[in-house]
Design goal:
single chain; 379 residues; alpha/beta; Rossmann fold; six-stranded parallel beta sheet; 14 helices
Length: 379
């Protein structure tokens, strides 16, 4: 198949999933064309099956903000026509689903029908999409999609609950590359950070309010009262300054390290003992899955699709959003007993294997073929 993928090129979950999916499809022999305003961060190897088409937006005094949607549509039309795509797969509904609809209709006017699939990732539905200024367009574009997928059953339910959607939605979960995300021997790194044998607790995100990183720090502060520990914060974003201030107020600066954005997250996860994800909203919890693949138990909220991944009392524990005391209690329970900790680690890995990249890519391939066949029948 010749597949076009439209995504955001940044560190966000939707861009990561889209890029890793495209890379795997190329390895399986498909021709994959990425369309975005810059090279996706994880598009990090050469293949004669992978192509990147950059969307150029020109400045003009009339516009306060350059019309990216129009430029993206034009570029997508160009790629659809000249690369003779079989299918377009857009990740994140806003604005990609409406862009794909316009591009499909433009190409259709010349007698060629190229179907598009929209994958819903989370905040495009749970946060941004609910905004009244976006909702009519999001609803229309989802209903006009030839296929729709969601990364969790909870997100599917959320979509039907809050939008007038009558299209079918297929649940295809996020995935993890078990070759990359696996526990590796990095004891030298662990010894440098925790020379006295402290437990290493990790959180990774884009440092937005919804991630509740202040709760990560507060949970950690309770843990270290009982168990000597260090906290590693991976990522960056608008909440970082606020979190640094909280760390100083708790006099925890010596035990907290801000590592910023990291490309080799798996190396840090390889030395971690526990992962904390207290999000107020989370459609799936990709960062938790990557931790689990590295044998790291998860302490999380019960928000969104997280319970579909983190199994309470097996791979870690779930708590109500904002229940810092319960999260801290559960964390200590896992960490205070080595045998118990080892069992949680093994359980986490076993659960992560259910979301193996190769298995999930097959689901997408089957879905692509289904949508292509359906569109030919309905033309």
């Amino acid at each position: 198949m010749k597949i076009g993928i439209v995504c955001y090129p940044t560190y966000g979950g939707s861009g990561v999933v889209a890029t890793e999916l495209g890379k795997s499809l190329a390895l399986n022999g498909h021709e994959v064309h990425f369309i975005s305003y810059s090279l996706p961060v994880r598009l990090d190897f050469f293949s004669d099956k992978l192509f990147f088409h950059e969307v150029s937006v020109f400045d003009y005094p009339l516009f306060d903000h350059a019309p990216y949607e129009t430029a993206l549509t034009s570029k997508l039309v160009d790629v659809m026509r000249h690369e003779q795509l079989d299918l377009v797969h857009v990740h994140y509904a806003i604005p990609h689903a409406s862009v794909a609809f316009m591009a499909r209709e433009i190409v259709k006017s010349s007698g060629v029908y190229i179907p598009f699939i929209t994958t819903l990732h989370g905040t495009d539905i749970t946060l941004v999409g609910k905004n009244h200024s976006y909702e009519p367009v999001v609803t229309f574009a989802i209903n006009e999609s030839d296929g729709v997928t969601a990364v969790s059953a909870d997100l599917k339910k959320n979509t039907f609950d809050h939008f007038d959607v009558h299209n079918e939605i297929e649940v295809i979960p996020n995935f993890v590359d078990l070759n990359r995300f696996s526990r590796k021997a990095k004891e030298h790194f662990r010894n440098a950070i925790a020379p006295a044998g402290e437990k290493l607790i990790v959180h990774t995100s884009n440092f937005r309010k919804v991630k509740r990183i202040d709760h990560v720090v507060q949970v950690f502060n309770e843990i270290r009262k009982t168990i000597p520990s260090k906290l590693l914060l991976i990522g960056d974003g608008p909440e970082r300054t606020h979190i640094e201030e909280i760390s100083r107020s708790l006099e925890a600066c010596n035990d907290i390290r801000f590592l910023g954005k990291q490309d080799s997250i798996e190396e840090i996860l390889s030395v971690a003992d526990l992962f904390i994800l207290p999000s107020a909203s989370e459609s799936f919890g990709l960062s938790a899955l990557e931790a689990m693949a590295c044998e790291v138990p998860v302490i999380s909220s019960d928000a969104g699709g997280i319970p579909e991944l983190n199994i309470h009392g097996i791979t870690g524990f779930l708590s109500k959003v904002g229940d810092i005391a319960d999260m801290a209690k559960n964390a200590v329970y896992i960490l205070e007993n080595e045998e118990r900790h080892l069992q949680f680690r093994q359980n986490a890995l076993n659960q992560a294997r259910k979301f193996d990249l190769n298995q999930v890519v097959k689901l997408y391939e089957e879905y692509y073929l289904k949508i292509i066949a359906k569109s030919k029948k309905n033309k």
